[in-house]
């Protein structure tokens, strides 16, 4: 909650600093997306993970 108020104070008093915070945040999201896009895919682990659920009623079937 404090982070919201701190960012609001930065945005209202120091607009240039808030712009830097926004750019750094956007750069971080681009970096995380790039790392996920280029990560190796282990299909055997995905197949094993898919078969770990018991047959029958699942609590959250849309997560499988």
Number of H- or I-type helical stretches: 3
What sort of overall outline do the alpha carbons produce when their principal axes are compared? elongated
Structural class: mainly alpha
How much β-strand is present in the residues? Answer: under 5%
State the major sheet. none
Whole-Å distance between the termini? 33 Å
Q: Report low-confidence residues grouped into runs of 5 or more.
A: none
Summed over residues and divided by their number, the pLDDT gives a mean of 79
Rg of Cα set: 21 Å
Q: Write the element-wise H/E pattern from the N-terminal end onward.
A: HHH
Helix content bin:
55-70%
Number of strands: 0
Features:
64 residues, 0% strand
Structure description:
The protein is an all-alpha fold. The protein has a domain of 26 residues. The protein contains 3 helices and no strands. The longest helix has 23 residues. It is elongated. The model has no long low-confidence stretch (mean pLDDT 79).
In brief:
This protein is mainly α.
How is the topology of this model organized?
Blueprint: H1 2-13, H2 15-37, H3 43-50
Helix pairs in contact: 1-2
């Amino acid at each position: 909650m404090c982070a919201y108020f701190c960012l609001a104070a930065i945005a209202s008093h120091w607009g240039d600093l808030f712009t830097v915070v926004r750019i750094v945040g956007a750069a971080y999201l681009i970096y995380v997306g790039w790392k996920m896009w280029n990560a190796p895919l282990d299909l055997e682990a995905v197949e094993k993970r898919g078969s770990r659920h018991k047959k029958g009623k699942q609590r959250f079937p849309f997560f499988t």
